[in-house]
Structure formats: structure tokens, C-alpha cells
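Forwarding the complex inputs:
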Amino acid sequence: MRRTDSLQGSLDLLVLKILSRRPGIHGYAILAAIRECSGDVLRVEEGSLYPALHRMEEAGWIRAEWVEKENGRRARNYELTGAGKKQLACEETRWQTVTSGVNRVLRMA
Amino acid sequence: MPFWSRIANVFRGDSLSREIDEELNTHIEEAIGQGRDPAEVRKTFGSSLRQREASRDIKVANWLDSVWADAVFGWRQLVKRKVSSTAAVLSLALALGASTSVFRVIDALLLRPLPVAAPEHLYALIHEGIDFDGTFQKSDGWVYPMFQQMRAAIRDQAETIAISSATRSEIKYGSDQDVEKACVQYVSGWMFGALGIRPALGRLLASSEDTEPRHSPVAVISFDYWTRRFARDTKIVGHSVRIGDDLYTIVGVAEERYRHRAGRYDRHFPADDDEPECSAAGFLLDSYVSAAEA
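Prediction (whole assembly, two chains):
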């Protein structure tokens, strides 16, 4: 599975889930975490991660904070909001419904 | 509040773009630090401008952003071409002023009804004919005997009222020797009644006052004149005023909303054929017919 956004909405689900486990990490760390947790199967494209992060921030699911790093650069760290936790629960349920539906079709066919 | 933050972001566009760039640069440096090929990382991001625009579109209210951009552009154009901008602003101001004053005239003359009872039943009488010089003439002036004949002829169908043109005359109050100037207008006795004008003080002219010979002529003053000359003194009723050789008694003040169509009048007198000015053959009156039923 090369492209993670081939299933609509799965990128949001992945990012929200990662942030619920590891609050306060920046964009690059989110990408690394997704790759690591999926056993190097899922690779999110850099180009699609940041628009997704900014969209979720505007929707109020996540909030960002600038943090000074050791090398003097600033990094933008993200964490889940209350609304984000609710959204995560929704997305998880939806994902379960979709995949169980797909599985059933695979078994039946 | 996403809505408000999107609106606020419109006005901090530059710092917003810088923040987006900074976040992306941090990411790229991090990736290079992890041992990835710099060229490959940049390639995965694609054009940094397109990346920035994609994030920017999410963060700002687009409609407001373009309105704001248009406003900034317009302001720059105005500042750049000072002369033509000034000319445009001045001509707009002149046009506005001209339209406003034309509208005021039209409003006063055509749109607002006359401040009288049943203005739709009021007709002005004019006569047309060939002059002594052989020229065609139209006039709304009538000699007083003509007015009397017209009034007698249509007595049962309509009220006829006559109003003279206002003239500035010399007047004197009581024993006061100082001569003042005021606009004086002669009207027929039933003028106030037919136009539905009520007195603000005292009484107005009675219908009989210009048809029966009387010994003590009376006058009505306008509300404006009462305010200006007498500071609304209620004791003014009963005072006498001398105009020319005659002594008049002020019997009342007309109500405020009534202004003559010329805009001002100071005094009204009953038009009377005993009155020297009126009986003079050349004295002209504007005549109006107020029809009771159209």
C-alpha cells in the first residue's frame, strides 16, 4: 500500500490517533510515527500532511504551539483538543464499519 | 473560533506565510538531519509556493482575502495617480451635492403635498388671452372685482380664495415711531378656512370679513414672524399695527405648519374692496378654487 490517502479520510484518522498516543510532536515526527507504527507499510506524503494538519487545526480538532529546539530553530508541535478526541472516536467507528464491510464483501465473493 | 481566526488571518497574511514556510523548512531540515537526500525531500514537497498556498487557503477566509487584496490594490492606484483621483473625488462630491439640491427642490415642489387640507382638490386659476400689444399672455393674476364675480358665480360648487403676492411694506406698531419693514400679503377672508389652517393663537380671518364693510380692519401674523419679532408673546393679540394710513388689529397667529408657497409671509389681511390698495384697479390677486368634491 503505497498511498495512504487512497482511502478517503484515513490520513485524518492516522494523524489523530498518533497525536492521542504521543501529544506534542511536530509534523516530521508524526510522519515518522505513522511509518514506524505501521511497520514501514504506510508512508504519508510530505506534501499532503501539512494541508491536512492545517485543515484539522482550523476545524479545532488539534491545536499547535511553537517550541524552540536545541539548534535554535522553532518547531510547531501539535496536540489533540477535546473536539479532536470526539472526532477520533467518530473516525475510528467509521473506519471499523468500512473495513468490516469490505471484509464481508471479500468473504462473500 | 475557526471563523474568526480565518478572518483575522486575512489581516496578518505576511506573518502567516512566514509561519507556514518556517514549519515546512523545519520539516525539511529534520528530514535531512535524519540522513535523507535534500533534493529528494524537496521533491516530495513539490513547489514550496504551491504548498504554502494550499495551507494558506485553509487558514484564511478566501472571499475576504480577495476583497482585502482588491481594497489594497485600489488604494495604491489612488495614491499613485493623485491628480486624477482628486478630480474623481471632487466630481463625485459636486455631483452628489448637485443631485441633493435638485432633489430638495423637487421634493418641496412636487413630492411633498401642500401643507393644507385636501391639496388634491386645490386648483390654480389662470387666464389666457391676447394682450393689448397683440401678444399671447398667460396669467394667474386677477383684478379684485373679477374675483368677486367668479366667487359669486360658483358660490355653491366651490370655494374661491384669493391671495395677493407678498410685498415688503413699511409698518409701525402702536405709538412706536420706528418704521419697520415686513412682508404683507392680502388674502380673501375664507382663505384659512378653505385651506384647513388652524390658529396657533387667537383667531384667523372669518369668511364674512372681506364681504361686509367693516370699520376696524384685522390682520393675522405668521408663526415665524410671531417667533422672530415677538418671541411668541401671547399678549400680541389685540395689538394694533399701522400699514400706510390704516390701523389694523392683530387678531391671531396662523399655525406653524403653514408656509405660503413662496416660503414666507409675515402678515395676512382680509382682501377687501373697502381697502384702498385692493380697490385700485391694478391690484392683482392669485386665485385658487378649492373644490369640495372633485
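Chain B has two domains: 2-80, 119-291.
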